[in-house]
Design a protein that fits this description.
This protein is of the alpha/beta class and about 120 residues long. The chain is built from five helices and five strands, in the order E-H-E-H-E-H-E-H-E-H. The protein has a five-stranded parallel beta sheet with strand order 2-1-3-4-5, with helices on both faces.
Length: about 120
């Protein structure tokens, strides 16, 4: 059974590129374009992993990740950002314990590796 991944990004092109790549890697993928929509999709889709942008309108990736963890404490979440140089991003990531990567990321090496490690529970 292939793992299910929900990709959340307010930039349509980015969401679709990541989704297509992950589908080619063998995952079942759904897309949401903001945190509120992601919560709705999550309820129906029940993904094994959520990969979410941090900066989005309506609900940030951190807010989404925390809301999902309230619904399911075991929910696996990876955050992504184009603003990794910002201290807030690094501090939030550290205090909340969510793995993250910066965009644009090399899909084959960075994204594929992080996704598989998080799904397998070997991410460190």
């Amino acid at each position: 059974m292939k793992a299910k991944i929900l990709v959340v990004d307010d930039v349509d092109t980015i969401a679709r590129v990541y989704a297509r790549f992950l589908e080619r890697e063998g995952y079942e993928v759904r897309i949401a374009f903001n945190g509120m929509e992601a919560l709705d999709v999550w309820e129906r889709f029940k993904p094994d992993l959520v990969v979410s942008d941090i900066r989005m309108p309506k609900m940030s990736g951190f807010e989404l990740a925390n809301a999902l963890r309230k619904k399911n404490p075991e929910q696996k979440v990876i955050l992504m950002t184009g603003y990794a140089d910002e201290a807030e991003v690094l501090e939030q990531q550290k205090s909340h314990g969510f793995p993250f990567f910066t965009k644009p990321a090399d899909l084959q090496t960075t994204v594929s590796k992080i996704v598989s490690e998080v799904l397998e529970g070997t991410f460190s």
